[in-house]
Amino acid sequence: xxxxxxxxxxxxxFQKLNLKISPGINVFVxxxxxxxxHLMKVAxxxxxxxxxxxxFAEKLIRVFLPSGRSLGRLVKRHKTSAxxxxxxxxxxLKLRASFSNHSTVAxxxxxxxxxxxxNHQIESVYIPVKEMLSNAPGFRSxxxxxxxxxxxxxxxxxxxxYKPALRGKVDKTRRKLLTILQKTIDGKxxxxxxxxxxxxxxxxxxEFSLLAEGMRKLGLLWLLIQNGTLLEGSVLFxxxxxxxxNPKLYGSLxxxxxxxxxxxxxxxxATHDYAILKELxxxxxxxxxxxFHSFYRDKNTQEIAxxxxxxxxxxxxxxxxxxxxxxxxxxxxxxxxxxxx
Amino acid sequence: MTIFTEGNLQIAIPDGVSARKFDEPATxxxxxxMKAVDFIVELNDRFIFIEFKDPADPQSIQEKKEEFxxxxxxxxxxxxxxxxxxxxxxxxxxxxxxNKPIFYFVLIAIEALDDAQLLAxxxxxxxxxxxxxxxxxxxxxxxxNGCAVFNLKAWNETFPNYPVKRIKTT
Lengths: 341, 170
Fold this sequence. Notes:
The complex is a heterodimer of chains A (341) and B (170).
Chain A: E1 5-11, E2 14-20, E3 25-30, H1 36-52, H2 56-64, E4 83-90, E5 93-100, E6 110-112, H3 114-119, E7 124-127, H4 139-145, H5 152-162, H6 172-185, E8 188-191, E9 197-201, E10 204-207, H7 213-226, E11 235-239, H8 250-262, E12 266-270, H9 274-283, E13 290-297, E14 304-309, H10 319-336
Parallel strand pairs in A: 3-12, 3-13, 7-11, 11-12
Antiparallel strand pairs in A: 1-2, 1-4, 4-5, 5-6, 8-9, 9-10, 13-14
Helix pairs in contact in A: 1-2, 6-7, 6-8, 8-9
Chain B: E1 2-6, E2 9-13, E3 18-21, H1 25-28, E4 39-42, E5 47-53, H2 62-73, H3 76-94, E6 102-108, H4 115-128, E7 146-150, H5 152-158, E8 164-166
Parallel strand pairs in B: 5-6, 6-7
Antiparallel strand pairs in B: 1-2, 2-8, 3-4, 4-5
């Protein structure tokens, strides 16, 4: 059972947000600073604690890394005392945390529903914008032993990537996805005893640090499918999948995400890329479940709001399309200058 | 105002502007061996070559629509647009009429073509014509001074004095 709703009040950039979530693919679009990544991190924290058994507030501190690791800094800025709340729902299961802007430690948060919540584990993975596999050797042990200033999503993604391959026969859909990825990256991903990642093919082993960044990301996806992290019932969060990837590869990537959704993986994407959105729009079937959530700053209240759409054409506002409209207008203008319209 | 039609589309040309239907076998006389743009408009300082493509015409049969989509995806429509321009240019050049800059505007009446795609189609057309000569810079003059691809909405917003509409909408 995946996530069904998210309710935030006074949390980071959000004054009030009530979001209904698709069990399939949720695409977050909007200008910079409209809270897309924050939302994904909140939802990821809620999923991750079901497996890691960390406290919810503690996990929020670790994935957001507020200054001084002070929980209260996640409350939307107010001149006076204020309290925030975070509610994540999986149908009837509700996980709730609330805390004030004076809270400094995780223990000062009031968390409810965590026992039932954690009784139903969810496998989840958060792929951050920055690629991590090439920095992997030694990172995990360093992160475990020292207070280094890295959001926990970076350590978590390595934990997922290092998981050994799933036992037993690989089912047909997963084999198909792995084959598509192997063709694209021209090999399979392997690790050595020093926790270094390599791309293995007929030519030998190529260390990840010598591989193009976009290919490293696809290699990571291959690992997550191969080791069974992304199976039915799991949740994938991917922040800007387009980063470092040539647009020619978006089609295969979106096809893989659509297939994962078809086998029951819930997916969250945050993107600024027209071609990513259009690939999803052109490739989706009627039975696919995709919701585009458009985040924007409301002109009247100046607060962040969100409007859902089931199709690319209905995304409103669509800052990506607006940018293209502006370019197109100027392109046409350059060509028609001097013509009495 | 003069009305010209091409298939199920019509364009209104304001009074005082010289325009002719160019792709007309009887007057062109060479359509068996040369391609032709649909209309040529002459303004004081330039010629405008205009080509209409109307694959979403509700009057046309399904097979014709599918054939267009296939040709569109295969890049054959781009090729067609290129040769229509070049052949029309040659025809006009041989007629001794090329004495001012030429602009080429293409209307593809598919509303699903959004601004990003129109921008990409415009760039692709410019490269194909091509608008700029070889890197050596030996061309003394361009063969086309500007080009752009429009859908119906973009056309009518850009050229309110040259409105285009569908004659039959069903």
